[in-house]
Design brief:
The protein is α+β, with helices and mostly antiparallel strands and about 170 residues long. The two termini are about 10 Å apart. Helix 3 (about 90-105) crosses helix 5 (about 135-140), helix 3 packs across helix 7 (about 155-170) and helix 4 (about 110-125) packs across helix 7. The protein has seven helices and three strands; from the N terminus they run βββααααααα.
Length: about 170
């Protein structure tokens, strides 16, 4: 589960509770069949108490919302192949599953504990993502990938690095 809050340039604010696979903290979850989101609040006038109000609402709904993770797990095991806010949502869902498989392979790597600790330390203390070595990332994706993934392995290196950071901080 993620909390996604954004303050837009024009002063409005939005907050969502997102239940999804580990991913970048953005609003692309709306195009994934492997995610659910609940709008917590929206303010059009830059309410100075916006985030405190969001925290209050999250306190009220967090426990029941945790059960939605089972819906995501069910979807992972048997994708509905539906479109959400994108005609490519099935394709994106398959890509997210490939990322998850690659992460499971990364967890089998002999240096995973060290990588995880380093990733957590870098995120917690420096708010930076540990960028994984591209050769390590290739070895994690090769059993599951296609030519597109291998052609853009640098992008997938970033995806796997974000998943590692998320896992390392919240495990």
């Amino acid at each position: 589960m993620y909390i996604y809050c954004i303050e837009h340039k024009e002063g409005s604010q939005t907050c969502y509770l997102i239940i999804s696979l580990p991913r970048a903290d953005d609003d692309a979850w709306v195009v994934s069949s492997l995610a659910f989101g609940v709008q917590i609040s929206k303010s059009w006038d830059g309410d100075k108490d916006f985030f405190n109000k969001c925290i209050n609402r999250l306190d009220n709904i967090m426990s029941p919302a945790a059960y939605l993770k089972d819906a995501i797990i069910n979807e992972i095991n048997s994708m509905s192949c539906i479109s959400t806010d994108s005609s490519d949502s099935n394709f994106l869902g398959i890509r997210q599953l490939t990322n998850l498989k690659a992460f499971k392979k990364l967890k089998e790597h002999k240096d995973f504990s060290e990588l995880s600790a380093k990733s957590k330390d870098l995120w917690v203390n420096g708010k930076e993502i540990l960028r994984l070595d591209v050769n390590l990332v290739k070895s994690c994706y090769e059993p599951y990938s296609d030519e597109i993934i291998m052609e853009y392995i640098d992008d997938y290196s970033w995806e796997l690095s974000v998943i590692l950071a998320t896992y390392s901080v919240f495990k």
